[in-house]
Specification:
Layout lengths: L3 H15 L7 H4 L10 H10 L6 H8 L3 H11 L13 H8 L1 H16 L10 H21 L4 H9 L4 H8 L1 H14 L3 H9 L3 H11 L4 H8 L5 H6 L6 H8 L13 H9 L4 H21 L10 H5 L4
Helix pairs in contact: 3-4, 3-7, 4-6, 5-6, 5-7, 7-9, 8-9, 8-16, 8-18, 9-14, 9-16, 10-11, 11-12, 13-14
């Protein structure tokens, strides 16, 4: 049998072959776009986390330089998101209990939340953006865990998979305006109008941003593939991996969709061979965790919709 590391490396190679990050010259396209810079403490911690021998003590020492990040790590540790039974007040112990992968998710989400600005564009509400992103991320985490995949990684991919959108609406709106206005008027999936009018979409742009931030390769690939078609993922058997979960999560409706339409989401999970009871269970758990997780992560959100009841006929 192949070792887990070998399987992981094979998957990454497969993803990089398929992910269309080189469609268009993004360095040239976005040469005048100001990409927000992650806080220095976040960059330092992410650099340290690349070291397989890094210790919880070293990571905790870096975290404590930022009081806001320290508070967030402890809040998440003591929230239902972590699922612990007793309170933890020591930062080193919190890092040890959470594990470095979970800490990575907290650190990145903290950094992104700090630097993303609300675009001053009609029809865009940053609270809706984070409500959609967090519910989808929690769902991905629960479903990935149910399928014995890396729930923490699925959570982080989905939480920031649409990160290019506020950047495009803030720093590149003079060009992106046509796409955004058409989407607002006509509806449908944003990526459809992006490909039609620009020949690339926000998933590819988001992967480029993540690459500029020097995020881990799997996150870059997951962001870049979240708008991929089910047909392509099925062809490459990526639907059976964490990429299938993160791709499926992107099809949960936005909170602003009233009434919400779950038809495409249902089509995708059936095509990916995921049992409905697993979908419902993951959604219910995500909905239960939503508000307290938003508080722990210091996110401004609305109350999340209850999609699980729509799937079960209100039961």
């Amino acid at each position: 049998m192949l070792a887990r590391a070998e399987i992981h490396n094979m998957l990454l190679k497969k993803l990089f072959r398929y992910t269309t990050l080189l469609t268009g010259n993004f360095e040239k396209i976005f040469q005048d776009v100001k990409i927000p810079t992650l806080p220095e403490v976040v960059t330092k911690i992410l650099g340290k986390l690349r070291d397989p021998d890094v210790s919880a003590v070293e990571i905790a020492r870096l975290i404590q330089y930022d009081p806001g990040l320290t508070t967030q790590v402890l809040k998440v540790t003591n929230s239902p998101f972590a699922g612990l039974t007793k309170e933890i007040t020591d930062l080193v112990q919190a890092v040890q209990v959470l594990g470095l992968k979970e800490v990575e998710a907290i650190v990145v989400s903290y950094g992104v939340n700090k630097v993303v600005q609300a675009p001053k564009v009609s029809g865009f509400d940053l609270r809706i953006f984070w409500t959609d992103s967090l519910l989808r991320a929690l769902f991905a985490r629960e479903l990935a865990t149910e399928r014995h995949q890396e729930g923490d990684k699925a959570f982080l991919i989905v939480l920031i998979q649409d990160i290019a959108l506020p950047v495009l609406l803030t720093s590149w709106f003079d060009v992106y305006r046509r796409v955004y206005n058409t989407w607002q008027k006509e509806g449908g999936r944003l990526c459809y109008w992006e490909r039609k009018l620009l020949s690339w979409d926000h998933a590819q742009a988001g992967a480029w941003v993540a690459k500029k931030w020097q995020l881990p390769d799997m996150l870059i690939c997951g962001i870049g593939l979240h708008t991929a078609s089910a047909e392509n993922l099925l062809k490459l058997k990526l639907h059976q991996t964490i990429i299938g979960v993160t791709n499926l999560s992107a099809h949960l409706p936005s909170i602003k969709e009233n009434p919400p339409h779950l038809e495409v989401f249902c089509d995708y999970y059936k095509l990916y061979g995921i049992r409905e009871e697993h979908i419902v269970k993951a959604l219910q758990r995500a909905e239960e965790l939503f508000l307290e997780t938003a508080t722990a992560f210091a996110m401004q959100v609305f109350k999340a919709p209850i999609f699980s009841k729509l799937l079960t006929g209100g039961q």
